[in-house]
Each structure stands twice: as structure tokens, then as C-alpha cells.
Amino acid sequence: MADPMSADSFLQALRDEGLTVVEVGDWRNHNRNHKGPFGPLHGVMIHHTVTSGSARTVEICRAGYEDLPGPLCHGVITKDGRVHLVGYGRANHAGLGDDDVLRAVIAETALPPDNEANTDGNRHFYGFECENLGDGEDPWPAVQLEAIERAAAALCRHHGWDERSVIGHLEWQPGKVDPRGFTMASMRARIHDRLTGGSTPTPPTQEDDMPVWTTGSVTPGPQPTVALPPHGDAWNAASHRRLHLGMDAIGTPPATATVRVAIHNGTSWRVSEVDLSAAGGIVDVAMTAADVKVSLLTESVGVAYAIESW
Ligand SMILES: [Zn+2]
């Protein structure tokens, strides 16, 4: 948790990280603060614009659209690697996202699936829109990716955050796909390297308390979906497992749904029915460290699952 940086220190932090910063209009006072709070700040969110042309992209992010007024972010990172500051304060970039994701960002732990839209993200995230068509084919120039890395690292450095405080819009809000064309895992690895002076990130080992997540979604229908948590020698030491279930529906989900959960411990199945409610968020199902397989069946609504192992 952190108070927002001042506009001046925001600008300075970006410059100190080696970025070329362009100040656009009265960016310091262009915001949506009259619509709600800005802060406390918990992280940095990365987006793609689905636009082309740097000048046009910057102007859209500054002014916004008729039904989505600007600013649409704080900084626009164009393909040439420059950061254009278009607003400061509350900006229309993050929308409603998942409170479980916010908790994970605050704790700087692995992200759960984003299957709820119940939390104001514009209040809690710095936002960078990055010029790209978002079609998976429009290239991301090296200089632009480096600018994303530097911009996110600059804010993490100021606040004392690590790379897990940087997320993509797609990790926050159900239905969002941005940024597309690089993975947030790869970007976080770069930010980690930058913040730690170039050391190579080491993968978590079984000695770490960091949970490993096996995540996915289940389509409604007659066929079960089977998920395998990590197992084998490396995981003999995993002492805990937990299954998290939540509705995964865009739009208006049904109020309640039942999921058939079957858990296999290597010898036999145990079967239960779990009731999910749209209002109730995530339901946790106990597992044991010996459980090696989970089968999920839902008839009425998509379900997101995460198996946490630690
Ligand atoms: Zn976005």
C-alpha cells in the first residue's frame, strides 16, 4: 500500500530509469478524480491500445472516447519507446477487476485467476497503454518492450515493490486480453532483473513457501475436465494443497451453480458437490498433499479453478 507519487516524482522516476518522457498538455491535472478516489496505489497495469500511429494513439489515450472519457492511462508507450504522459490521478484504464487478484498483488504472491469484476482498479493501479494493434501479429519493437520494463521498474523502485506488483489488464479483469504479443511472465522476469541489478531469477524450489498454481477453466457440458496438480519427486515435500473454484462467466452469471468435484488420491476417488454463488466469489475445497488428480463437471456455468500447492 502506498500513497500516490506526486506528479513531479512520477516524472522524475521515469527519467531516472533512463526513459525519454514527453509531457502532453496539462497532464498533471488531467484526471478523473471527480469520479472517485485515486489511491492507495498497489501496482502497475500494462495495456495495449488496439490503435496504430503514435500521434493518434497518444491523443486517443489523452482525450478518450465519447463513452469512456480520458485520460485512459497515465503514460502511453509508443513503438519508438517514448513515454507520453497524458494524465495523472484517476484514469479510465483498469475498470472493475478481481479482489482476489488485488490481494495477491498487495501480498506479491502468485496471481489467482481473474474471475470476478468487483473491485475498482482505477483507484489502485498506475496504468500504461502501449501502442499495438493487439492482434497477436503487430510486432513489439525491442525498444518498446524495454520502455515497458523501465517504466514499470521505475514505479516499483520508488514504492519498494517487486515485479509481482506489475500485472497485465488480462490478469485483472475477466474478458480482457491485453497486452497480447508478449507474456506478462516474461515482462515480470525482465523487471525482476532490472530491480535486482541483473541477477537471473531462480525458479521456486520445494523449500520455498511460494505456492504453485495450476489454473484453468471448465466449460459447462456433459464432459468433466481433469486437472493435475504438480506431483512426482519434486513435489513429495508439498505438504498442502487447496482447490479454489469460482464462476467464470462474462455478463450476468446465474445466481447459483453446482459443480461436481472428484478428487483422486492415487487409489480412489472421493466425490462431492460444491455450490457456487455468483455473489459469493471463490469457494475453497480441501485437498491433501497426496491428491494427484481433480475432475470437475459443471452443467450450467463456466467455472474457473486454481489448485494451489505448497
Ligand atoms: Zn486494457
Question: How would you portray this structure in words?
Answer:
With 310 residues, the chain is an alpha+beta fold. 19% of the residues lie in helices and 27% in strands. It has helices at 7-16, 54-63, 99-107, 142-159, 184-195, and strands spanning 21-23, 43-48, 64-65, 68-69, 75-77, 83-85, 96-97, 119-120, 125-130, 166-168, 212-218, 225-227, 241-247, 256-264, 269-277, 283-287, 293-298, 303-309. The strands form 5 sheets. Strands 1-6-5-9-2-10 form a 6-stranded mixed sheet, sandwiched between helices. Strands 11-18-13-16 form a 4-stranded antiparallel sheet, with no helix packed on it. β5 and β6 (83-85) form a beta hairpin. α1 (7-16) crosses α4 (142-159) and α4 (142-159) crosses α5. The radius of gyration is 21 Å and the shape is elongated. Zinc ion binds next to loops.
> Which overall shape is indicated by the principal axes computed on the Cα atoms?
elongated
Helix residue percentage:
10-25%
Order of helix and strand elements from N to C terminus: HEEHEEEEEHEEHEHEEEEEEEE
Could you tell me the strand content as a percent range? 25-35%
Q: What profile does the largest beta sheet have?
A: 6 strands, mixed
Quickly give the structural class.
alpha+beta
Number of domains: 2
- Mean pLDDT value: 89
CATH superfamily heading of the largest domain: Peptidoglycan recognition protein-like
* Strand element count: 18
- N- to C-terminal separation? 26 Å
Question: Which small-molecule species are bound to the chains here?
Answer: zinc ion
State the name of the first-level CATH class of the largest domain: Alpha Beta
Poorly predicted runs are 199-208
User: Architecture of the largest domain in CATH?
Assistant: 3-Layer(aba) Sandwich
Strand order of the largest sheet: 1-6-5-9-2-10
Radius of gyration, in angstroms, nearest whole number: 21 Å
Count of helices? 5
| CATH fold name of the largest domain | Lysozyme-like
